[in-house]
Amino acid sequence: MLRSVYTQVQGIRPVPPIFRSIARFGSSSSTLSRAESNVSDHNEEEEKRQHLIAEIKKKLRGPLADEFGNIPKGKDRPIAIEVDGPSHFYVNTTKYTAYTKLKHRLLTRMGYKVLHVPYFEWRKLRGAKERETYMKAKLQEEPTEWLEPADEKYYKERVQSDVSDSSKKSPPPPPSTPRPIRS
Q1: At 94, phi and psi to the nearest 5?
Q2: Which residues contact 104 (CB under 8 A, 6 or more apart)?
Q3: Counted domains in the chain
Q4: pLDDT tens digits, residue range 158-181?
Q5: Enclosing domain of residue 134
Q6: Is there a single domain that holds both residue 31 and residue 107?
Q7: 13-33 pLDDT, tens per residue?
Q8: Are 22 and 31 in contact (CB under 8 A)?
Q9: Burial of 165 (0-12, 13-18, 19+ CB in 10 A)
Q10: Half-sphere exposure of 158 (CA within 13 A, CB side)
Q11: What's the CA angle centered on 87, arms 81 and 88, to 5 degrees?
């Protein structure tokens, strides 16, 4: 209140806030230092963002990933034994359901060595000795990411055809036919 009365008496217009801050800090170098601090704040925010992204990627790799996001390979992989009951197969077949295939692929990509024991194979075994031999043989297997060879073959052919198609020709242009106008 006093300041506005003083400026009216003196006939001086009030100084805009931006000029007051420059005058308070003495020179334009303070504006530069403020701009530099804004840049450093932005860099800190970007660094925090990148760190958060790295943490999310690590967690998405699964519980077995090390601090760099690498998953175990070879003999270091932990073993997950999946006991596949009737619900893991389509009705009256020995073909795995899509859900079971997805679960297998996810566990494999997370670093697990996933071994499957189908119920119809287990039921054929008689006695503890046969089951022990069966499980020892299962533990020696090296499973792939795919449960069924037909799926793996289909996927590989699809990827190869996509790669060869993209290298041969460019993508088709978007359709240029106009939409009909409704009245």
Answers
A1: -110, 20
A2: 82, 96, 114, 116, 145, 146, 147
A3: 2
A4: 888 777 776 665 555 555 545 556
A5: 74-166
A6: no
A7: 555 555 555 545 554 555 556
A8: yes
A9: exposed
A10: 6
A11: 45
Q: Which two tokens stand for residue 33?
A: 């230092």
In a domain, residue 98? The reply is: yes
Pairing type for strands 79-84 and 113-118 reads parallel
d(C-alpha 38, C-alpha 46), whole Å: 12
* Residue 123 resides in a domain: yes
66 is a domain residue? no
More confident call, 169 vs 40 = 40
Nearest-angstrom CA–CA distance, 71 and 65? 5
Looking at the fold, whether 35 and 87 belong to one and the same domain comes out as no
pLDDT at position 91 over 90: yes
pLDDT digits (tens, 9 = 90+) for 112-123: 899 999 999 999
Angle of CA points 53, 59, 65, to nearest 5°: 115
CB 63 within 8 A of CB 111: no
